[in-house]
Amino acid sequence: MTVALWVVPALPFAGFLLCLLLGSRLGKSFVSTVGAGSVGLATVAAWTRLVPYLTGDGTPVVEKVAPWIAAGNFSVDVSFRLDPLSALMVSFVTFVGFLIHVYSIGYMSHDETDAGYARYFSYLNLFLFAMLVLVLANNFLLLFVGWEGVGLCSYLLIGYYYEKEYAADAGKKAFIVNRIGDFGFLLGTFGVFGLFGTLDFDSVFSRAAADPARFAPGLTLVCLLLFVGAMGKSAQVPLHVWLPDAMAGPTPVSALIHAATMVTAGVYMVTRCNVLFRLAPEAMFAVAVVGGVTAIFAAVIAIAQNDIKKVLAYSTVSQLGYMFLACGVGAYVAGMFHVLTHAFFKACLFLGSGAVIHALGGEQDMRRMGGLGRRLPLTYTTFLVATLALAGIPPLAGFFSKDAILTGVFAAHRPILFGLGLVTAGLTAFYMFRLVSLTFAGDFRGTPEAAAHVHEAPPTMTLPLVILAFLSAIAGFLGLPEVFGEGANRIAAFLAPVFPRVGLAAAEPPAHSLPAATEWLLMGTSVAVAAVGILLAWTWYAKRAGRPAARVAASLPALYRLVAEKFRIDELYDVLFVRPFVWLARMLWKVVDVLIIDGVLNAGAFLVELTGDALRFLQTGNVRNYALTFLLGIVALLLIVLAG
Amino acid sequence: MTPNGIPLGDVLLASGALFTIGLAGALLRRNAISIFLAIELMMNAANLAVLGYAAALHSLEGQIVVFFVIAIAAAEAAVGLAIFVALFRHTETIDVNKINLLKW
Amino acid sequence: MTARLAFDVAAGLAIFFACVMVVHRHPVKSVLALVVSFFALAVTYVLLSAPLIAAVQVIVYAGAILVLFLFVLMLLNVPAEVRQTPGRPIHHTLSAGAIVAFAAALLAALRSYGATAAPPSPAPSDPGDLAPLARLLFSDHLLSFEALSILLLAALVGAFTLARREGSP
Asked: Distance between CA atoms of A495 and C48, rounded to whole angstroms?
């Protein structure tokens, strides 16, 4: 029997309801079972559909659940879509989501109350529901529902420790910055409807592909607007500011939402709309530039951060930049491939950092870590595997996906962007090994009490780490470059139906026209750059305990401070946007609301009072006056009757 | 033209004159009972007018009306004067200028 | 011809004594002037072929109502009106103006509404005959007549209650 597609998101939603309504009363074991179990069931349900689909021919499956809106010309249904792209997304969203739920059981169990624990799992389940709706949606509006839903859950989970002001503020910041992006996305959706008269994916894309000349002019603006949404959701410059602050949430949240799934929604959306983007080359160029700039920008900041989670956050921003860079040059497959591999190794890295933080009783500053490799062997090993994957060392997954991206950029004849990407690769390797060295190598620099407390994490936490590290290692073989043989790039073959032919010649993905020698050269270059980064970081931090780095920082103090303070972008936004808005709000309050609106109303009341004060003199209490008034009225009436 | 040859105009003129005089009395006197008296005069003026029309239109309905009006005027006078008596007991005066409890 | 003259004289008397009533400051003398005026009015009623009404006017109005007024005046020992020192000029001028305006308007109305029109209806058999009047009163207006008696009862009770001293039987 075939499981209906809507069951897959419905299971976590049921989990959300159960944990929310019953969780605080029924205790932690109930919440753990239901919370992780619902996601596990969803994973199983999803894979029962995915396994036959993966071996099939990849024709899209559309399952309409119910009509939703039907108003005149505008109609939208609740319908879900299974095609190679959504299949790819569902595969790791469910599985990695499940692993992280299991991890959370161990991570969240001792600090939280029953109510807090239940709240955590209900939000996490709600998130998974929204994410699955997002990737399985068959039209822009349902996608937007999921889009908003993940934004909401991100806010709820970042602000999980809501009693801490910085956590509550971080949640608000994430939601507000996301909202700015969402505004762009919504405008883009309106544009899509305006151009095509429908929001259904199949209809929109087939119409666009069939008549490119007619739609291409309007599509540039529409695609740029849609990309603004992606910039907000996937933390690209300048809307990246929320992601590092989002580290205020629990570490599994950072792993799931801010590494593996939600932030990749932007990349997914751009890939889903590849037909539209390919008809708007200017928009694609903008995507590539933003991606490239973000990649290097975030990587530079990461090398000067001291909080382990902040390094990983900026690393995520940087890697997302890579994905958009790939999309922008037409190498969509490479971008999606990187989404997949990144989900595995970044989730592993975050969970590993969570294990470290847990072991040190909450310490996140790397300057007070060190030498943990001996004390936490399992954590160290998995962390190292994931780091090597991220740095791009073969044969681990990150190497193949990153190489695919760089090859794509090179094949698209974009030397500057290629240079940016290459330098970023080096920086990535450098800051990741700086992190590893500071945390796991050398001597322990923390307090003696912390040292005594250090212990390896429980199996609920270490098992997901192992699985994710393993996947980081082998996932690369899904997308081997062409040089290894025809058809070696299985993922490209799988995703091919998502990229139909489009009328414009310029809109085709770059042909694999690179000679084998060039490909090998490119591969070698990226490995070399990564190796240089690793060596430098290891030497400076592991062997010489960071002294060379300190010397460099001391010689360029202003530059170092600028980088360490994340180029003071938040401060810039504060001056440019926050202060004027606060001023405006105060103005609206003090002047418009109190003076003008209240004033007008009070003036009206005052006028009435004044009139009453004046008119009361008619009440003389003297009957004769009343009789006189009466008479005057009668005279007037008589005159009117006589005249008329 | 009434049966006895009195032109209706004369009757109405007389009625109007009486009414206006009564009006003047009601507005210009200070004594509550005098005001009431003037009102009675006004009512009589109205009766005269009705009777004038009744005679001119050869209708007996008018006389019936006046009959009732006089009866009701009697009732009204009784009640009104009773009120004045009660008022006087309260305020020791029937000067309308001084009876102004409803003043602002 | 003579009827008309008689009417004019009677009406003139009525008007004259009405003026006296309005002008005189002593309330008792006012009432007495009004009595005379009502008598004159009764004469005009007779001339207008309403002898019953004239009789009722004399008996009820002049004889009962105004006598009641006299009683109350005596009871309350109302003094003559004295000219007030702070006069109330606004009220007086405004009243005078309104009255003049009213009179003018009334005059104009009377003139324009055809006071001289004579409707063509047949003369009754004998205008002074009471039988048709009585018949009309006790047939078409029987309800009103009976209701009137109840009204008089109500007025009686009301007047009694209002004028009673507090706490007396």
From this structure: 117
Q: Determine the Cα–Cα distance for residues A85 and A83; give it in Å rounded to an integer.
A: 6
Element (H, E) at A69: strand A61-71
pLDDT band at A23 (very low <50, low <70, confident <90, very high): confident
Chain B contacts of A622, Cβ < 8 Å? Answer: 96-97, 100, 103
> What are the pLDDT digits (tens) for C65-107?
999 999 988 888 877 777 666 667 778 888 888 888 888 888 8
- Token pair of A305 as six digits: 């951060």
Question: How far, in whole angstroms, is CA B91 from its chain's centroid?
Answer: 26
Q: Is B87 on the interface with A (CB under 8 A)?
A: no
What spatial distance separates the first Cα and last Cα of chain B, rounded to whole Å?
52
pLDDT tens profile A292-338: 999 999 999 998 888 999 999 999 999 999 999 999 998 888 888 89
Number of domains in chain B: 1
B103 located within any domain: no
Predicted confidence (pLDDT) per residue in A487-500, tens digit: 557 777 777 777 77
Would you call A361 helix, strand, or coil by DSSP? coil
B44 within a domain of the structure (yes/no): yes
Nearest to C105 among A624, A628, A642 (CB): A642
Under 8 Å CB-to-CB from A295, ≥6 apart: which residues? A318, A319, A321, A322, A325, A420, A421, A424
**What is the second-level CATH architecture of the domain C1-80?**
Up-down Bundle (1.20)
Looking at chain A, which subunits does it touch, using at least 3 CB pairs closer than 8 Å as the criterion?
A: B, C
Give CA–CA dist B1/A440, Å, rounded: 131
CA distance A581 to chain B (A): 52
On whether the CB atoms of residues A562 and A568 are closer than 8 A, the answer is yes
Continuous segment of H or E residues that includes residue A80 = strand A74-82
Cα B2 from Cα B13, distance rounded (Å):
15
User: Residue B69 is part of a domain; what is its CATH number?
Assistant: 1.10.287.3510
What span, in angstroms and rounded, lies between the C-alpha atoms of A120 and A24?
A: 11
Say what the pLDDT of residue A584 is.
92
Q: Is the pLDDT of residue A375 over 60?
A: yes
Q: Give the single-character DSSP code of A260.
A: I
What does pTM read for this prediction? Answer: 0.70
Segments forming the whole domain that contains residue B18: 8-91
Question: Is the confidence at residue A207, as pLDDT, over 50?
Answer: yes
The predicted complex's ipTM stands at 0.87
Give domain status of residue B17, yes or no: yes
**Chain A interface test: which of C106, C112, C113 (most A C-beta within 10 Å):** C106
- Give domain limits for chain C: 1-80, 129-169
How far apart CA A419 and CA A412 sit, in angstroms, is 13
Distances (CA, A) of A245 to A62, A263, A264, A365, A635: 38, 14, 18, 15, 82
The residues in C 87-146 lying below 8 A from B, measured between CB atoms, are: 88, 92, 95, 98-99, 102-103, 106-107, 110, 115-119, 121-124, 127, 132-133, 136-137, 141, 144
Q: Any idea what the Cα angle at residue A535 is, between residues A414 and A260, rounded to 5°? A: 60
Of B23, B96, B104, Cβ closest to residue A623: B96
